[in-house]
Amino acid sequence: MLNNYNTEDKVLLAVDCIIFGFDQEDLKILLIKRDFEPEKGKWSLIGGFLKMTETLDDAANRILNHLTGFDKIYMEQLYNFSKIDRDPVERTLSVAYFALINIEDHDEKLIEQYSAKWFSIEEAPSLIFDHNQMVQKAILRLRRRAISKPIGFELLPEKFTMRQLQKLYESILDEKLDKRNFINKVNGLDILVKLEEKDMTSSRKGSYLYQFDKEKYDRNVEDGITFKI
Amino acid sequence: MLNNYNTEDKVLLAVDCIIFGFDQEDLKILLIKRDFEPEKGKWSLIGGFLKMTETLDDAANRILNHLTGFDKIYMEQLYNFSKIDRDPVERTLSVAYFALINIEDHDEKLIEQYSAKWFSIEEAPSLIFDHNQMVQKAILRLRRRAISKPIGFELLPEKFTMRQLQKLYESILDEKLDKRNFINKVNGLDILVKLEEKDMTSSRKGSYLYQFDKEKYDRNVEDGITFKI
DNA sequence: ACAAAAGTGTTGAGGATACACCCATGC
DNA sequence: GCATGGGTGTATCCTCAACACTTTTGT
């Protein structure tokens, strides 16, 4: 039995995270202004290096937790970027992750401390290395996910209105949706509970609040009903 | 400007390939019997280590070429597997790739030389490390691809019958399809050319041969027509 | 009374599915 | 002449898209 693969090359493995948020208007991503070389002063995704003692998911969690202050974020491995000279300092591969967080209840202080800032997708600055490419790929993945899994709720507060949910889907899919068709579809999925409460901030009439009901969702999925918006 | 990221850990990166083929009956995968430690004598995916001087795609191509003898294989990056102890010898991450090859025109000798063998998905032996998991993931990816991109043709000879194409899709999707509906759908896509020739091996009557027409396909895609079986 | 957003159903078209019989040929 | 797989069309269902008016309430 071997003890090691001595003759093989070892490489540095970075983990970079595309963090999506939603501010009731636009889909946004969280970027940081680098305060270290290379490319100091430019905008980039948050990232870090994989440690010998952790899995990739662990590393992505650690990095996300460090910046946003919380755990149990929806997170998915996205793709590897491995161009030889993608990092000018040294040969480095990067594993991109994408994450969804509720923009409202995350820690402002941490974000300030790291010079991080939310940018709407259209207004995001150009990023270092191949990070723009990563963001593009993440958006496409997010779209595919959004229409096949109920991940949208990860981006909303616990209680939300139908209008908010619709706006979120509109900004993810980058297209206008019909109000009635959207509501009919969502109601057809039977994964929300309508609350008695109304949100009065958005209109005179007020609009009912809803909650995502994970149990209902799981039951539906078990019964073979597929989520599809 | 930095010259290196001295303090960070480096890791071994393996590339493992799930190679799919189709023998007119079943969907198959190509496996090798390992003639080296660890797990010598057991079945595994083919793989190798990433070299400092190549991208992941390069590495996957090199490994595939080495075993099958040809280049320009349809190939896709699948996922990273990074459990700490997945390889008992040493901490190793693996990037899984899946590939499609035409089972008929590949090099028998190379395959013998490497003790490689085609297994139908159901009859495949248990594999080393986390390779079974990789295969499962590859099958799911293949299914999603097959209904949204015309990758099926990569697995068939240049000229094929409708029955062959249908059988291929049936084995990828693991369900029976209706003959007439399938033909109508495929013809509706307008991406095949019907040849004058018939294949006489499968029946008395003989069945017409078709060819995938990449130009037609590209034109249709440009025009916004989506492939969907 | 009016402005501003919320809420609510129906219809029509197109795509998907289900389904059965004749054809050509080698033996 | 018969057995074998090849080829073909239609009726129905259901999903998806298009579409406009009434309600509530704060000012």
UniProtKB/TrEMBL annotation, chains A, B:
<dbReference type="Pfam" id="PF21906">
    <property type="entry name" value="WHD_NrtR"/>
</dbReference>
<feature type="domain" description="Nudix hydrolase">
    <location>
        <begin position="10"/>
        <end position="141"/>
    </location>
</feature>
<dbReference type="InterPro" id="IPR036390">
    <property type="entry name" value="WH_DNA-bd_sf"/>
</dbReference>
<dbReference type="InterPro" id="IPR015797">
    <property type="entry name" value="NUDIX_hydrolase-like_dom_sf"/>
</dbReference>
<dbReference type="InterPro" id="IPR036388">
    <property type="entry name" value="WH-like_DNA-bd_sf"/>
</dbReference>
<protein>
    <submittedName>
        <fullName>ADP-ribose pyrophosphatase YjhB (NUDIX family)</fullName>
    </submittedName>
</protein>
<dbReference type="InterPro" id="IPR054105">
    <property type="entry name" value="WHD_NrtR"/>
</dbReference>
<dbReference type="InterPro" id="IPR000086">
    <property type="entry name" value="NUDIX_hydrolase_dom"/>
</dbReference>
<dbReference type="Pfam" id="PF00293">
    <property type="entry name" value="NUDIX"/>
</dbReference>
